[in-house]
Design goal:
- The complex is a heterodimer of chains A (282) and B (172).
- With 282 residues, chain A is α+β, with helices and mostly antiparallel strands.
- Chain A contains 5 helices and 12 strands.
- In chain A, a hairpin with a 7-residue loop joins strand 7 and strand 8.
- By secondary structure, chain B is mainly alpha-helical.
- Chain B has one domain.
- Helices cover 72% and strands 0% of the residues of chain B.
- In chain B, helix 1 packs parallel to helix 3, helix 3 runs antiparallel to helix 4 and helix 5 packs antiparallel against helix 6.
- Chain B is globular, with a radius of gyration of 16 Å.
- Classes of the chains: A alpha+beta (282), B mainly alpha (172).
Chain lengths: 282, 172
């Protein structure tokens, strides 16, 4: 017995170390991006604050470029606005008369509203990529909301704290999204193979699907994103694991290196649809 | 003695900030990410209490994990390295070295480089293997271990040499 105690005391540093390593591995393996404690992520108050400070400094250097992009986007939207106005103005009274009956019902509230947010941290050093944004529960951000930039899809909100949220971007191996080519009805599945930040893969498209480099890839049915959002452009044929399906590479529309401002999508009907579908499962 | 602890605490904080705010955002050629925080373990005195070494290493890993959203990965890797620190030191340094001896380019360049090489490669190998354990793509992982290892070691040797040179200048 005494020898046993002596043994334990002599080797207690090994025991402590083994316990700590075991605890670390426990964290590694129970780490599930959808049910994590906020305290162990970059969404907690201290890390969020530090990242905000460093984000403020680095965003200063990107101001000029972002300004230009916003101006371009503004010009494009203005153009669309004028085109739409033009069309409305040209409509003959009989044309508009036929839709009048619906208008009172449908124009009232839009399905999607947007919460503007700023990126305070991007981590894509390895295969575990995350984005932290500076809006959280207090500003109406919830889990599973979609996040887009002015160029295209960014990712999905995974963890939310009071004033920050962690987003799983397209360039995370856990990210999956149903997509389609602009001129096609076949759905494929978007994923990322971990090699290149600018390129993702679309899998599970039928063999007979034809596509050219430069074709636009859009979101198809999804609970998180509205339909027909731009994801990127086809950049070439990829390796396919299965002979019955084709895989192609996709150049992402969002430039993750310089990502600064994003919009969180708030879908009014998300909870209603979710509740209905849950009910079906039971 | 107390000044040494203060110096170590500052090094601890500086290395964490350097890692999370700067180095972890770098990906050279899409592969190499410098992982420098293991430098803390290299700069602890030889005779430092092993509990102190292991617990400070674990805390460092955990803080970095919280910043990088990788719960447990860095903590597990650096704690394992801290466990192997004493046997590794026995390989490269003389047993008679006094307790407060701090390894460095200024005191013993050749053994320090060898010690750095082993410790950092061990750390990075463990780190990427734990990361890849939940994932795929072995060839890519190996490439990243080698490139990141080389980058980190070069950076550490450069950093240590710069500090050494400045101290030398002060003395003369």
């Amino acid at each position: 017995m005494r020898n046993l105690f002596n043994f334990i005391i002599r080797n207690s540093h090994w025991l402590v170390a083994i316990l700590l390593v075991a605890f670390s591995f426990y964290l590694v393996f129970t780490h599930n991006s959808y049910q994590r404690s906020v305290y162990l992520t970059s969404a907690n108050r201290v890390t969020g604050w530090l990242y905000t400070v460093s984000g403020d400094v680095s965003s200063f250097f990107l101001l000029k470029r972002n300004n230009r992009e916003l101006l371009e986007r503004n010009a494009q939207l203005e153009q669309e606005l004028y085109a739409l106005r033009d069309r409305l103005g040209n409509q003959s009274p009989t044309d508009s008369f036929t839709v009048e009956a619906f208008i009172a019902d449908t124009t009232a509230v839009p399905q999607f509203t947007f919460i503007p947010a700023e990126v305070v941290n991007l981590s894509f050093s390895g295969v575990n990529n995350f984005i932290t944004i500076n809006k959280g529960r207090n500003q109406g951000v919830k889990q599973d909301m979609g996040v887009i930039s002015h160029r295209g899809v960014v990712g999905v909100v995974s963890t939310v704290s009071a004033n920050f949220a962690v987003v799983i971007p397209v360039i995370n191996p856990k990210f999956r999204l149903s997509v389609r080519l602009k001129d096609s009805d076949n759905n494929g599945s978007l994923s990322w193979n971990g090699n290149n930040i600018r390129e993702a893969q679309v899998q599970e498209l039928p063999r007979h699907e034809t596509f050219n480099n430069g074709d636009t890839v859009l979101t198809s049915f999804s609970r998180i994103f509205p339909k027909n959002l731009v994801i990127g452009r086809v950049s070439g044929l990829g390796e396919s694991a299965d002979d019955n399906f084709v895989t192609f590479n996709l150049e992402l529309a969002t430039d993750f290196y310089t990502l600064q401002d994003v919009l969180v999508i708030n879908d009014r009907y998300y909870e209603e649809q979710n509740a209905l579908e849950e009910k079906m499962k039971q | 003695m107390k000044v040494t602890y203060l110096y170590e605490f500052l090094l601890f904080l500086l290395l964490i900030l350097l890692q999370v705010l700067l180095l972890s955002r770098i990906t050279l050629f899409g592969l190499a990410t410098p992982v420098l925080y293991g430098y803390f373990l290299l700069k602890l005195p030889v005779g430092r209490n092993i509990f102190y070494v292991i617990i400070s290493a674990f805390l460092m890993g955990l803080i970095i994990d919280i910043f990088l959203n990788t719960p447990g990965m860095n903590a597990a890797a650096i704690t394992l390295v801290a466990m192997c620190r004493k046997p590794l030191m026995g390989l490269f340094f003389e047993k008679e070295e006094f307790e407060g001896f701090v390894p460095g380019m200024n005191s013993a360049a050749a053994p320090f480089i060898r010690f750095t090489l082993f410790t950092i490669f061990l750390h990075i190998t463990l780190l990427y293997l734990i990361e890849a354990f939940t994932l795929f793509n072995m060839v890519n992982t190996l490439l990243r271990i080698v490139t990141s290892g080389v980058t980190s070691i070069l950076l550490i040797i450069a950093l240590d040499s710069i500090i050494y040179r400045r101290k030398n200048g002060e003395q003369s």
